[in-house]
Design brief:
Blueprint (H helix, E strand, L loop, with lengths): L1 E3 L9 E6 L16 H5 L6 E4 L3 H5 L13 E8 L2 E9 L8 H22 L8 E6 L2 E6 L8 H21 L14 E3 L5 E3 L5 H4 L11 H4 L14 H12 L4 H6 L1 H21 L3 E2 H18 L13 H12 L1 H6 L3 H7 L2 H7 L1 H26 L8 H7 L9 H32 L1 H14 L9 H4 L3 H14 L5 E4 L5 E3 L2 E3 L4 E4 L1 H5 L21 H5 L15 H18 E5 L4 H5 L3 E3 L1 E3 L8 E7 L2
């Protein structure tokens, strides 16, 4: 056992216990594994990470952190072909702004490990335990179940943790640290859940109807809709609830909706034309959110919110939906918050938080609309309307499945998911086109040939046949997919990932963002290259394009979202010449935060454009 002691300055103790995933333990008497050199000496890119606790989530200002006995952070160390789960429990307080001190101490311990590695070689540490004491930090690292603790393993783990604490000191941003799981093929990201980062394994987690797939209850409560399809945990109940809605969002049903989408896109183009006349910049997320909100509300309730007809595009509601996404992790920590808020009088909510008031006001409005539909259905057996909620109320679902309370949660699910995700895809695709003149030139040339007269646009099925437009949309979806892990549970069967057997009932997840940026599938993953979707490689890549997930719990509104994207991009880029205005990739587009939906920097004023010309 190696002990390094220095004077204690601050009272603190950190216990770092390395826990393996599934491989059997190896005693320290055995020789080092033959693959040790592969991932110790030649793995400078190893990373470490953490899950923020509830105190960090609700803090208005994440600096300074205090590490205390209430603050328990699971931490990860990942190296190629290896993943180690490290749990840190701070049992006495370290003063705020102390991450730099922790980083320094980790670096000192790393230097000690490096010294021993050079002197002794990559041999097992006697007793399988490394102890480091310095300036109030007592650190214990024990051997792991999936590899032995050698000086090489220790050096790489400490190097990763040193870099990681430095990143915390540098950013201290909530939601910004999800991408630390990038390097691990399989990682335990909390005491219950495993994350896999292997595109070939995707279909094993997100399976079709022949295999039962539950949702993890912890992830299902993120948006406060436990009774909507997004928050439904059991496989069978989800199948029943979704079955009523499937026909509404089928390819055939969405094709019939084509003229309605075109009419709303015409209104969208009127707003672009107006900004051409006023020379004012347009926030693409706001204007595309206005479109997607009008489409989904008209489909749900037969009357749109007419955001496109409002002077400000109802931009404050876009902010409300984005804020709901931001607080989704807080809702997970405190699931009782939203029920309390919904029980308060509207005036009280308005005093507490104006944006929360807007959300509650929406809920109350949906209550009235659904109750009105219920009355309409009772009065007439032959209602002329055929909206989503008319269909649910006419269905053979159990009475408790047709209560207004549950249907309001369904409305929040459908409208929320149908608004900001599709708008984000339109915004991101538009940015990349405008930032890549060659791609823009090829698209506009194709659109001019396919649409000789912009006043008479082709139908949705005709647009779907345009190869370069389809390639642009696929590449845009690759860049704009969800940033968070999508957890699933196989309740009745084990899953095999390489040599790991994952027991039934284990929450298992993958991340679309990581799949879409895997260089083995998408070479030069950070480059916008629509050409990658053309030619013989297209079908092979389609398997790995998962912006809507896959399986029985894939995005219900996938066909509707694609229809909106096709019609909007084709019309906007056929009719107008656009130019980016005071927009930066690093600040306004690059994914910086994981709030389930991908977010750019909090300093971003938005992706904005000027309309430079109207094309005949």
């Amino acid at each position: 056992m190696r002990v390094c002691s220095k004077p204690i300055v601050t009272a603190a103790l950190t216990l770092l216990a390395a826990l393996g995933l599934a491989a059997p333990a190896i005693s320290d008497e055995s020789p080092p594994l033959f693959s040790r050199q592969e991932f110790c000496y030649n793995a400078p890119g190893t990373v470490a990470g953490t899950l923020l606790g509830s105190r960090a989530l609700v803090a208005k200002n994440p600096r300074p952190y205090r590490m205390s006995k209430e603050f328990v952070n699971p931490q990860l160390w990942c190296a190629p072909h290896c993943a180690t789960y490290i749990r840190a429990t701070y049992i006495s307080a370290i003063p705020g702004q102390s991450w730099g001190l922790v980083q320094y101490l980790m670096g000192d311990a790393e230097a000690d490990a490096q010294k021993q590695l050079r002197a002794l070689g990559d041999v097992n540490i006697r007793g399988g335990l490394y102890v480091y004491r310095a300036y109030g930090l007592d650190m214990f690292i024990r051997d792991s179940n999936n590899h032995q603790l050698t000086w090489g393993v220790l050096r790489e783990a400490l190097r990763a943790l040193t870099d990681y604490f430095g990143e915390i000191q540098r950013t201290a941003l909530p939601g910004s640290l999800t991408f630390i799981i990038y390097d691990g093929p399989i990682v335990r990201v909390n005491p219950f859940e495993l994350h896999v980062n292997d595109p070939e394994f995707y279909d094993q987690i997100y399976t079709g109807p022949s295999k039962k797939t539950d949702k993890w209850a912890w992830s299902a409560i993120a948006f406060g809709t436990p009774n909507g399809i997004f928050g439904t945990v059991p496989h069978e109940l989800h199948r029943k609830r979704r079955g009523v809605l499937n026909n509404f969002f089928s390819k055939q049903a969405v094709s019939r909706l084509g003229p309605n989408i075109q009419a709303l896109v015409d209104k969208l183009c009127d707003r672009f034309r107006k900004n051409y006349e006023t020379k004012q910049p347009i926030d693409l997320h706001h204007i595309f959110s206005a479109l997607t909100t009008d489409v989904i509300t008209e489909y749900c309730f037969a009357a749109s919110d007419d955001c496109l007809g409002k002077e400000d595009l109802d931009a404050h509601m876009t902010v409300v939906w984005m804020k709901l996404s931001e607080v989704s992790f807080t809702i997970q920590q405190f699931p009782w918050l939203l029920p309390i808020v919904n029980a308060l009088p509207v005036w009280a909510v308005r005093l507490i938080n104006p944006r929360l008031y807007e959300m509650v006001k929406l809920d109350r409005g949906w209550y009235r609309q659904i109750d009105n539909i219920r009355v309409e259905e009772k009065v007439s057996d032959k209602s002329t309307e055929n909206t989503i909620f008319h269909k649910i109320l006419r269905s053979d679902l159990d009475p408790q499945e047709r209560t207004t309370v549950r249907l309001v949660e369904e409305a929040r699910t459908l409208i929320g998911a149908g608004t900001i995700t599709t708008a984000n895809a339109l915004k991101v695709a538009s940015y990349h086109l405008l930032a890549n003149p060659r791609a823009l030139q090829l698209l506009t040339a194709e659109l001019k040939t396919a649409i000789p007269d912009p006043a008479h646009p082709p139908s949705l099925p005709q647009l779907e046949q345009l190869p370069y437009l389809s390639a642009v949309i696929n590449e845009g979806l690759r860049f704009s997919s969800l940033a968070h892990r999508m957890q699933r549970i196989a309740p009745d069967r084990p899953l095999l990932f390489h040599e790991w057997v994952i027991p039934p009932g284990t929450p298992l997840s993958m991340t679309s963002f990581l799949v879409h940026h895997d260089a083995s599938v998408f070479p030069s993953p950070d480059a916008f290259m629509p050409e990658r979707w053309l030619g013989r490689s297209e079908k092979r890549l389609d398997r790995y394009l998962v912006p809507f997930s896959k399986g029985t719990r894939a995005c219900l509104g996938m066909n509707l979202a694609l229809a909106e994207i096709y019609v909007a991009l084709a019309n906007v880029f056929r009719r107008f010449e656009l130019e980016l205005w005071e927009t930066e990739w690093e600040r306004d587009v690059r994914v910086t935060h994981d709030f389930v939906n991908p977010f750019p920097s909090m300093e971003s004023p938005g992706v904005r454009v000027l309309v430079k010309g109207v094309v005949g």
